[in-house]
Design goal:
49% helix; 25 strands; 14-stranded mixed beta sheet; alpha+beta; 790 residues
């Protein structure tokens, strides 16, 4: 029996090659895209689970006050917090810290390297036993126990020493004494929130009582200790140890290590995190793609049931039961999906580089452990079989119910329920198509909006050159004067970090305010001429000037003045880290941070000693010509340091907006496939409709109806379906756009009415073209052929 089912299925697949190829290709594409989206989603959900005690490790998060503006959630705590917690609570089995460093210069004999910000971590001696990073050399118990000990990652050891055999080798970091390599760790997994190039023992520094030194603090709870039991004790802990502190938090809570990637968005922290809405939406789009394929499969199978109706009648006459017929058609459906499975695997491998580039560039070097997981392949096979069953369920049930007498007389049932079912599937396909087009348009619109957004400073033709570390204003003066002599360089300045990625935040106390009324504000250390180079607008007071003694002066932004309720801030005083200064100016609001965040109260001050970037304003002359001059002067000024630079505009687009642009491309690519499948569904329904109405069309033509009249008659029914899909899809997307975009972006572009009409028009035109192919064919048919049996 099974052998007969299989033979019949193969025969029918080969007999109806067109439908079979469309279904197999559709299923393969849908499964491939769904597989990639599901793999990415699984990867994002697996963060930090490789640690041995991941289920018991938590980050300490503080809710800190910020004047009258509310509160900020921060996973950054003072250095003494670790020992206070460990000594206070028996529920805490152990605790550790890691403190990221600024950009550093690393020297290995005659070679000089840059270590970017956050790649060197200062950690406690128990860091390697607290977390579960794999060691290639050295003892994790003792590697960080001594002062001036350093642990290298595998890739860093190869970069500095040419191999992982680096034990006992020495490095000079910053200008400190030499550090000795005591261990080499394998590079952190891709799904780790904690990544490092170097670990330096905190025993090197005497910071145990210094609250101004900030780091991430993690605790490991004792077994069988619910986190909320410990959180209930935190208010008493704050009252006992932190109530008199000017940095006393309003609240402390625990954030699970496994949740750092997706549940820490909006929390100030040192680790990277994903926007959870984008991760979930990518997975949802993969599911929508799979549903579109199922709808398409079902519609095409339903459209072709006329070709199988007599077969059903004959089988029932010779004794086939309904159950046997259902197994036959279910088998064909599952067989089609199983044929599509290997094609889906091949397509997945072909599409993977593009998908990774668009959705997850950090996985571009991912190995088989991410994309070729055997369990994932088995899960995809299971999904394939389920898709085959679901996609073929309606045709199987419908065809098996046909009465043999009616099928043999070609008097097939056309119940309202059956018609309504097919129309519902088509409307669902059209809704997914319109929705996906709107998502794509929304994403590209947001990208273009942010690309042209007024960030409050001019970044065009600005060259950013990476300095060594901690240059002073006086040490940079010879280089700046040499560069300023070039006729195509209009201005030169420097600063601590790069606009667009600046994330510093400090406690600021306005004059006359009690310690509890301190504010959390962004603080930016700059040099003379910085404001003028970036063409930032001073709205009150003046800029920093060498004509005045401005080393103790501050400039605030408009938001800071508004939050502090100062109509005229000039002359008011602020205290930052114990240093009191006078406000000499107010600058128009600007964005030195990610545009996903709103403008925050900001203070600019003259930084004397920690200038890490040089900024050069160029004329309209060719950049290459000026670059040669800048590089030449750089090597004269600092012959042992590499010359690294970037154009600020390019960096802005790459670091802040490239992710949005790529995700827009991914949504657009999937939208194209969904539209194609929707058109195929309409094509199938049109085929079914024209076959069902063949005699009606013949009678109308016999009575003089023109081809245009026939086409208009049939198209009207489909226009109603497309209009219904628009009516449903538009408000659904409107609320999604209203909630999702405004939740993700601090500044969002308006999605005008034109977007809705364009999406509807695109689906309308492509859908009607698919219908016209069948409709015109039916309208041109000879009415005699349709009426010959009447």
């Amino acid at each position: 029996m099974i052998r007969n089912y299989f033979k019949t299925a193969i025969r029918n697949i080969l007999k109806h090659k067109g439908y079979s190829i469309i279904n197999i290709a559709g299923l393969a594409i849908g499964l491939a895209i769904f597989s990639l989206a599901a793999t990415l989603f699984k990867f994002q959900m697996s963060f930090n689970q490789f640690h041995r005690d991941a289920d018991r490790i938590y980050s300490i998060v503080q809710v800190v006050p910020s004047g009258t503006a509310g509160e900020r959630h921060s996973a950054i705590a003072g250095a003494p917090m670790r020992n206070l917690l460990r000594n206070e609570f028996q529920e805490i089995e152990d605790a550790t810290r890691w403190i990221p460093t600024n950009r550093a210069v690393v020297r290995q004999e005659r070679n000089t390297f840059y270590a970017e910000e956050g790649t060197i971590l200062l950690v406690d001696s128990n860091f390697l036993t607290f977390f579960s990073f794999e060691m290639l050399a050295g003892d994790p118990e003792t590697a960080l126990s001594e002062s001036n000990s350093v642990v290298l990652s595998e890739s860093t050891a190869r970069r500095y020493f040419g191999s992982v055999n680096a034990m006992g080798r020495k490095l000079t970091i910053w200008k400190d004494p030499e550090f000795v390599v005591k261990a080499v760790a394998r590079d952190a997994p891709l799904n780790s929130s904690l990544k490092f190039d170097m670990l330096i023992s905190l025993n090197t520094f005497d910071w145990e009582t210094n609250w101004s030194i900030k780091g991430a603090t993690f605790v490991r709870l004792a077994k069988n200790t619910p986190p909320h039991h410990l959180e209930q004790k935190f208010p008493a802990f704050i009252e006992k140890h932190l109530s008199d502190s000017p940095v006393s938090p309003k609240k402390i809570y625990l954030l699970a290590l496994r949740d750092l990637n997706l549940k820490s968005y909006g929390i100030r922290s040192y680790w990277p995190k994903e926007i959870p809405e984008i991760v979930y939406l990518t997975f949802v789009i993969g599911i929508i793609m799979l549903l579109a394929v199922c709808f398409n499969f079902t519609n095409l199978a339903t459209a072709g049931y006329f070709m199988r109706a007599k077969e059903v009648g004959v089988r029932k006459v010779i004794g086939a039961s309904r159950r046997q017929l259902m197994w036959q058609f279910f088998g064909e459906s599952v067989l089609l999906s199983l044929i599509a499975f290997p094609a889906a695997i091949v397509l997945k491998e072909i599409m993977q580089p593009l998908f990774v580039y668009l959705a997850a560039p950090e996985l571009s070097h991912a190995g088989s452990e991410v994309w070729s997981n055997p369990l994932m392949m088995l899960a995809l096979l299971g999904v394939t079989i389920i898709v085959g069953i679901l996609a073929g369920s309606y045709p199987s049930i419908f065809l098996s119910r046909l009465e043999p007498v009616k099928t043999l007389r070609e008097n097939l049932p056309t119940s309202k329920k059956a018609v309504r079912m097919r129309q519902t599937l088509i409307v669902l396909q059209l809704i997914t198509a319109i929705f996906s087009v709107l998502v794509t348009l929304m994403a590209f619109n947001q990208y273009n909006y942010l690309l042209k957004f007024d960030v409050g400073y001019e970044m065009d033709r600005v060259l950013a050159v990476a300095l060594g570390t901690n240059y002073t204003r006086s040490s940079l003066r010879p280089l700046k004067e040499a560069l300023s002599r070039h006729p195509d360089i209009s201005a030169v300045s420097s600063a601590v970090w790069v606009p667009g990625l600046w994330g510093s935040e400090r406690r600021v106390v306005p004059e006359g305010a009690a310690g509890k009324e301190a504010w959390r504000m962004n603080t930016y250390g700059i040099d003379y001429g910085f404001i003028e180079l970036f063409e930032m607008e001073i709205v009150q007071g003046r800029s920093f000037s060498r004509k005045f003694a401005d080393s103790g002066s501050y400039i605030i932004n408009q938001t800071a003045a508004d939050r502090l309720s100062w109509d005229n801030p000039i002359g008011e005083k602020l205290t930052i880290r114990g240093k009191t200064g006078v406000i000499i100016g107010v600058v128009k609001d600007f964005h030195f941070k990610n545009l996903l965040e709103e403008i925050y109260p900001t203070v600019l001050f003259l930084e004397p000693s920690y200038l890490n970037y040089l900024y050069i304003k160029l004329s309209d002359a060719p950049v290459a010509r000026i670059l040669n001059f800048v590089e030449n002067r750089w090597h004269i000024f600092s012959p042992d340091m590499p010359f690294e630079y970037s154009m600020l505009r390019d960096r802005y687009g790459k670091d802040l907006l490239l992710g949005i642009k790529k995700w827009s491309g991914l949504a657009g690519l999937i939208s194209v496939f969904i539209i194609i499948f929707s058109c195929l569904g309409l094509f199938g329904l049109a085929s079914y409709t024209t076959q069902k109405r063949t005699k009606e069309i013949g009678i109308r033509k016999a009575h003089g109806a023109s081809m245009a009249n026939i086409v208009r008659l049939i198209l009207t029914d489909f226009l109603k379906l497309i209009a219904l899909a628009m009516i449903i899809a538009w408000p659904f997307f409107y609320f999604l756009d209203l909630i999702l975009v405004q939740d993700i972006f601090a500044y969002s572009a308006e999605t005008g009415v034109a977007f809705y009409f364009f999406a509807g028009l695109l689906v309308l035109i492509t859908g009607l073209l698919a219908v016209l192919l069948q409709t015109i064919k039916a309208a041109r048919a000879n009415p005699i052929e349709a009426l010959r049996y009447e």
